[in-house]
UniProtKB/TrEMBL annotation:
Protein name: Mg-protoporphyrin IX methyl transferase
UniProt keyword annotations, A-Z: Methyltransferase, Transferase
Name of a matching Pfam family: Methyltransf_25
Methyltransferase domain: residues covered: 44-132
Keyword Methyltransferase assigned: yes
Matching InterPro entries: Methyltransf_25, SAM-dependent_MTases_sf
GO molecular function ontology, one term from the record: methyltransferase activity
Organism field: Tropicibacter naphthalenivorans
Length: 197
C-alpha cells in the first residue's frame, strides 16, 4: 500500500515540485539511452510520473506514454501536459500484461517498503513485452527512513537491487551513480540502472 504521509507531502507540494524539478529532461543521459534502446513509437509506462516532465520528454521523442502516480496532486500537474495519458494508481494496481516496450520507474519505487519490492518488480516484469526494458532509479544506502518533510524512503545498494531483478529473470545493465539535492534540500547519493530479460 502507498504511504499516506508521503502522498500527503506530494499532494501539498506538487506545484513546488513541478517548479523545481519539472524542467526539460530530454538531454538526460539515462533517458536518452532508454529511448534509444526502444523501438520507434514504443509504448512506455512512466511509473510514479510526478508532474509529468519525464513523460513529456518521452512523448516528444515519439513514444506512446502512459503515466501514473499515486499522488492526486502530481496527477493533476501531469494532466496539464499534452501528448501523454495520465491516471492515478499505486504500484500494486499495475495490472497490465505484456503491453509495454519499456517502463520508466525513476525514483518512485524508493517510496515502497522493502518487503513489497519483489511483488512490485514482478508486476512490472509482467507488464513488459518480451525483451522489454525496465529503468529504475533509487537512493543509495541501507535501511528505511523518513526525510525532514515526512516522506518514507527505502534505501538500496546496487547488489541488493540487481539480486532482486535477477530473481525474476531480468538482467541489469547500464548502472549510473550520482548525488543530487532533493525537495527536502539535502543532497543524497543515488543510482539508476536498466534491466531486460
Amino acid at each position: 500500500m502507498a504511504d499516506l504521509q508521503t502522498l500527503d507531502v506530494y499532494d501539498a507540494r506538487a506545484a513546488d515540485y513541478a517548479q523545481s524539478f519539472g524542467m526539460d529532461h530530454g538531454k538526460d543521459p539515462s533517458l536518452r539511452d532508454f529511448i534509444a534502446a526502444l523501438p520507434k513509437r514504443a509504448r512506455v509506462l512512466d511509473l510514479g510520473c510526478g508532474p509529468g516532465s519525464w513523460a513529456v520528454a518521452m512523448a516528444q521523442a515519439g513514444l506512446s506514454v502512459d503515466a501514473v502516480d499515486a499522488s492526486a496532486g502530481m496527477v493533476e500537474q501531469a494532466q496539464q501536459h499534452q501528448g501523454i495519458t495520465v491516471w492515478q494508481a499505486r504500484f500494486d494496481q499495475i495490472e497490465a500484461e505484456a503491453i509495454y516496450d519499456g517502463i520508466w520507474a525513476n525514483f518512485s519505487l524508493l517510496h515502497a517498503p522493502r518487503d513489497e519490492m519483489p511483488g512490485h518488480l514482478a508486476r512490472l516484469k509482467r507488464a513488459l513485452k518480451p525483451g522489454g526494458l525496465l529503468h529504475i532509479g533509487l537512493k543509495q544506502g541501507q535501511g528505511e527512513a523518513r526525510d525532514s518533510l515526512g516522506r518514507f524512503y527505502t534505501y538500496y545498494t546496487v547488489p541488493e537491487l540487481t539480486g532482486l531483478l535477477r530473481a525474476i529473470g531480468l538482467e541489469p545493465t547500464a548502472i549510473r551513480h550520482g548525488a543530487d539535492k532533493g525537495l527536502d534540500g539535502t543532497v543524497a547519493p543515488w543510482f539508476t540502472l536498466t534491466a531486460h530479460d
